[in-house]
Amino acid sequence: MSKMEEVFKYARFEIEPLNEETYVKGLRECLKEVPATVTTKDLEVSVETNGEQEVAESSTGSTPLHLICASVEVKDAKAVEVARAMVDVLLEYGANWMMLDDNNETPGCIALRRKVPSEIYDRIVAAGVRSEVFLRRMTEEVDVVDNDELKGDAAGDQEAYLASDLEYSGGNLTTKEGKDGVMMDWETPIMKRSAEIMVESAEDETQLAVLNVGFGMGIIDTFLQAHAPRQHYICEAHPDVLKKLRQDGWYDKPGVVVLEGRWQDSIPQLIADGIQLDGIYYDTFSEHYQDMIDFFDYVVALLKPQGTFSFFNGLGADRQVCYDVYCQVVEVDLAEYGLAVTYEELPIESSSAAAASSAPDWTGIRRPYWTLSTYILPICRFLGA
After folding, report:
1. What is the Cα–Cα distance from 96 to 66, expressed in whole angstroms?
2. What is the pLDDT of residues 83-114, one digit of tens each?
3. Nearest alpha carbon to residue 328 among 65, 127, 187
4. Pairing status of strand 181-184 against strand 303-311
5. DSSP calls for 4-20
6. Element (H, E) at 36
7. 57 phi, psi to nearest 5 deg
């Protein structure tokens, strides 16, 4: 039996005796010769029949991390203990927390689906956090390479987005050509609660000062207006949205100042003017996580000591494990700016009088930007506030 075959026998719990000492020692010996990212496809390719490989080109296979999560007997305490130890060893040797198998699942996805004990899932999430933070910091001093796949795509290329035509229809704001969801009315309960926490920060609500970056459908701005803010800054860059703002009379509302253009160009003037804000909200389209990190510099310059910063938390919202990882990544990054994060859970499917529909309807939308059952609302305030 080759070391590669042996790795998968450990991952499937096929070796006796089933105890931590045997499995940890054996797996470590195997990983001296076999990478922790090895897959069942690699194993099948290494075993030829009549000189021909019998593996479908579309197959990606499963890693040992996948198989542990798929094979562990969740009600067997000894098996769970061994699984936890193997997960630690695999991650130590460089196992990839977000590799996809043939079913488009990561190891964390399998662990959640099978209700594997949280101690195993939490280790995978922690590995994801370490990986994401380390990877970004390693590239901070390096010129970012353009992603040619995103160029021209309004959902990932801001220049393309700002040049695209938008359409307000049926409670949604979408790109007219590609039908990318820019904003949808299922977000209403999220925006309502986000506005509430921003207002709660004000020492004197009669002097309320707030900023929203990314108007979209104006949902959060409508809730903020109900509190009659003395200063209400709205930053918006898309020409079609700015047209909607003007048509709907936002330019004439008391206290409202519309900052036309990208926040990178307009927000610095607020700092130069010495503006201090009770609440800041960030909800842009076609930008990336690094853009939000860049925005943190402006947050700490504009936010009052007791103020609240929040944002639409859709980071990694295509699968739960990625969402859980990014919630923790945000905590790590904001701590460097002196901001602490607490989270409030909002069920997406629950009915709400504030929303026309309590659940997302992706009919006609090219790519759903939300697939989870619970929204984690971030509440960010200065440490000690």
Report:
1. 10
2. 999 999 999 999 999 999 999 999 999 999 99
3. 127
4. unpaired
5. HHHHHHHHTT-SSS-SH
6. none
7. -60, -30
Q: Say how many C-beta atoms besides its own lie within 10 A of residue 204's C-beta.
A: 8
CA angle 342, 346, 353 (to 5 degrees): 135
Residue with tokens 């067997």: 76
22 Cβ neighbours under 8 A, 6+ residues apart: 15, 16
Q: Structure tokens of 225?
A: 């207006």
Q: What is the DSSP letter of 182?
A: E
Enter the pTM of the model.
Answer: 0.90
Encoding tokens for residue 175? 């790109």
Q: Are strands 277-282 and 209-213 parallel, antiparallel or unpaired?
A: parallel
CA distance 26 to 19: 11
Coil/strand/helix, residue 279: strand
Amino acid at 242: L
The structure tokens 């160009």 sit at 265
Find the DSSP H helices in 167-319.
188-200, 219-225, 239-247, 263-272, 289-302
For 34, 66, 213, 284, 371, the CA distances from 97, given in Å and listed in that order, are 17, 9, 33, 28, 20
For residue 153, how far is the Cα from the chain centroid?
20
User: pLDDT tens digit string along 152-208?
Assistant: 688 888 999 999 999 999 899 999 998 999 999 999 999 999 999 999 989 999 999
Can you give the three-state secondary structure of 105-156, one letter per residue?
A: CCHHHHHHHCCCCHHHHHHHHHHHHHHHHHHHHHHCCCCCCCCCCCCCCCCC
Are residues 23 and 85 in contact, defined by beta-carbon separation less than 8 angstroms? Answer: yes
Structure tokens at 60: 């990606």
Cβ distance 198 to 311 under 8 Å?
A: no
